[in-house]
């Protein structure tokens, strides 16, 4: 029995993500919440012949019911980028949206796992943490920024260079954050070794860091990644759901490092310094983050340099999120 809420279910990500969750046989209840169009989306998805029950929740008055009795909330609510914008340009609108949704979760499902997709993830996750802290229900093991799309892109983009690589099974740990140079793919630590030249590593790293821009540019004003994000979000949600059901699963995700202070030490030594949030590979259990998984080997010098560049930008993003809630 796993109950999942999608908050922002009528959107470009929300609709295909909800459909993919309807196909997940471990999901028993699917609550779809949005401020527009959600009765139609829910009615449509509810006809898919799997056993889960789909319910629609429309507008602020139904938010409390939408998030009551939930094991996992996935949040793709908020505005996407247009060409010429950075993810940080979304902060003004999305910060408030995320804050409101987390306040409701803190009140009505304080033990739920929360997976934040809304950008800028580097700031919206710290916002979520501060709101949960203010409500006295923060458990750093249960809050996740979804960075799976970076991991998905890394596998796929390696395959674009090496046609003998299986994009579906190759795993590249991606650490740091989720925007531009805060995204640090550790290509040297891929699940199976890939021989790449220095210039290929540089180009590939840049492409993974700015993969979102490729989609924003191609969509030409009609938004950002939705379908690949729904795939990535469903993949991450499936890992969380399997963890809730007792499996041990490893996924990179943007977390509060307080979730595993001992494991965080290695990450800090790599260049994360005193940052409170960082994307790292974590082992998940029914309690959330069971531990930060050690990288297993030293990243290359190029990757360590990229981590220190990421850390500087991340620090500012995190402070912006924290200050938003503290009113500083
Ligand atoms: P979209 O505009 O298509 O959909 C957003 C949905 O959120 C809409 O249905 C809208 O009605 C809803 N919404 C707005 N305010 C709300 C509120 N207060 N409560 C509930 N729902 C609300 O946008 P999209 O393309 O689905 O993108 C959504 C967000 O995801 C954006 O911020 C985007 O930048 C982000 N995103 C993140 C990643 C990632 O890797 N983490 C990838 C792609 C997009
Ligand atoms: C992405 O990586 O595709 C998302 O964060 C959306 C964006 O704004 O690029």
Automatic annotation (TrEMBL):
Residue positions of the active site: 178
NCBIfam families, sorted: MDH_euk_gproteo
Domain of life: Eukaryota
Record keyword Lipid metabolism present: no
Family that this chain belongs to: Belongs to the LDH/MDH superfamily. MDH type 1 family.
Family annotation (Gene3D superfamilies): Lactate dehydrogenase/glycoside hydrolase, family 4, C-terminal, NAD(P)-binding Rossmann-like Domain
InterPro entries, per the entry: L-lactate/malate_DH, Lactate/malate_DH_C, Lactate/malate_DH_N, Lactate_DH/Glyco_Ohase_4_C, Malate_DH_AS, Malate_DH_type1, NAD(P)-bd_dom_sf
Keywords, alphabetical: NAD, Oxidoreductase, Tricarboxylic acid cycle
Domain spans labelled Lactate/malate dehydrogenase N-terminal: 3-145
PROSITE patterns per the UniProt record, alphabetical: MDH
Record-linked SUPFAM superfamilies: LDH C-terminal domain-like, NAD(P)-binding Rossmann-fold domains
EC number: 1.1.1.37
Chain residues that bind substrate: 81, 87, 119, 153
Catalytic activity: (S)-malate + NAD(+) = oxaloacetate + NADH + H(+)
UniProt name for this protein: Malate dehydrogenase
Limits of the Lactate/malate dehydrogenase C-terminal domain: 147-325
GO CC annotation: cytoplasm
Keyword hit for Oxidoreductase: yes
Quaternary state and interactors: Homodimer.
